[in-house]
Each structure stands twice: as C-alpha cells, then as structure tokens.
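Run log, item B.
One chain of 188 residues. Sequence copied directly from the ordering sheet:
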Amino acid sequence: MKLQIAIDRVSLEQAELLTRKLAPHADIIEAGTSLIKDYGFQALERLKAAAGAAKLLGDAKTIDEGAYEFRQGYKHKADLLTVMGASSVETLQTCYAVAEASRTEMMIDLLECTPEKVAQIIHFPNAIYCLHTSVDQGASANPNQEVLAFKKAFPTVQRIAIAGGINLQTLAGMAEADPEIVIVAPPL
C-alpha cells in the first residue's frame, strides 16, 4: 500500500515546506486542487523539486480539454494527474492517451460517479481509480468496506486509491481491502 499525502489550502511557500518535510514519509505528494487553482500548473515544478524521490500528483480534476490540461500538467513535472470520472468517455480516453504517451500516470477521481458510470469507464488498465468522499460531504464512514464493495462490483479494476475518512483507526483496517494508494491530508 502506498501513502499519498495531499497538500492543499496553503500558500505555495508553505506547500514547498510541507513537501520537503513530508516527502521522505510518502510515496506520492499531492498538489491539491486549490493549490493548482491558486498558483497554476507552474507550481508543480517547485513542488516536484521539493518532493525528492516521492512522485508528484497534480489534482487538476480535469473534466474537459483533457489533452491540453494533461500536456500542461506533465510539462510542469507532474508524475500523475487527476481526471474526473464524471467526464465524457472521450475526455477520459484523451487523458489516458496523453498519460500513456508521456509514460506517466492518470488517476480517475470517482467523486459522484454512479455504478453505471463506473461500468462505462473501467477499460483503462493503467489508470488508478480513486474512491473519493468529498470534503463537503464529510469523511467516508468505512473506507475499508468501500474498497471491498468496489472490488466486488468491479473485479477487473486492479488499481484502486481511497480518499476521505482515512485516519489511524481506519488505516489499520485497510490491510484487508488492500488498495494500491491511501490518500491522507495532514492537519493544518
């Protein structure tokens, strides 16, 4: 299981300091959506320089103009970028093609995706499918059960991440579900 640490809602300078401090303990450092909205994709270069051996995910939450946004994100040093599962299938295909051509990775954020929508988009073998409970909704009551239910419903999906409701208590139970990536946010 890999640890992804999300950094969000801080200044770029604070994000760099947090990245330097947390990167030795993480597999992936996430430049959160608010950081990208506040500072643009150029901020990814500064965070990548601070991330050391950790990969850098840009949580772009792309929903349209996938090729452009993914090229820009990868140009500015992201190792992974996010696209919303609610996007059109064509947007997802475009993002996946750019990620594959760039030899980088794509994470599909399944926030607000119905099981029917997920069934339409499970044909990207190298993509990471992220089960995500929004900040506005509150944390997932049982992230372990959420991953297990997803695996049962979509057994062909091999790469799964979980975000929302992860704490020391729920993390202990994640071994059973065994997602590829567990995403946490440090208290600020």
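Observations after the first pass:
- Residues 83 and 92 are 7 Å apart (CA to CA).
- Strands lie at 2-7, 28-31, 55-62, 80-84, 105-109, 128-132, 160-163, 181-184.
Flagged for discussion on Thursday.
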